[in-house]
PTS sugar transporter subunit IIC
Amino acid sequence: MNGQVSVSVFQALVLAIWIALIESRSLLGAATVALRFSPLMTGLIVGILFGDVTKAMEITAAIQLIYMGVFAPGGQMPAEPCIAAAISVPIALLSGMKPTAAIAIAVPVGLLGGYLYQFRLFLDSFVNKITEKGVEEVNKQKIFMGAIVVPIIVSLVLFIPFMFIALKFGAPVIASFVKNSVSTEIFHILSVIGGGLVSIGIATTIYVIGKKSYIPFFLSGYFIAVVCANAGLTMLTYAIFGALIASVFILVRSEASFKNGEE
């Protein structure tokens, strides 16, 4: 980057194609759903393109936390995490913004991406006529074209220009403004708001998939991570400890259920 606040044509184009393929919902089959719901892989692509994978993943991990509890009723999400990461992470990398402050940019970008995805579904409603006609005629080729090929083309035509323009021309402008104003109070406020949004994401996850009986495990993991923050432990170490504790818990429950069955 060499201190220059700019996005190259290659960087913008690759990211735009990546997002368009994800939003097509056909890239790698069902894996596309995970790529769309989680910004982590998009953050990795951004890090590789901008030459700073470590910083990109730190920013993306913070963004991921606010979308942990987001789900898609009926297939539609209130925001598009992958689009949020594709634009906010480059801005943060170019401007030196803190991960928590980048969250405040990711949220409105993700919401705008959600509206764009809804427009894509609106366009697909016209494409469905091809599929319906193929079903009426029992024509496999028309069904394939209407259900797979044409929706992918619509996604490419819609998302590539939008993402390219946003990344090539929009991201540098925002990053330049942030870089020149990073010492002002507004970015301290953004960091505070970003930290609050992270807690909301975690709370939503607990509410959606959590059980009261499992909350002690969550709190134990959190406080162990805080206490051992300076111990130099890696995520792999935490994962091994977590797997061992989960194995013991499952074993105890299995034996208890077996004894109750015998009685």
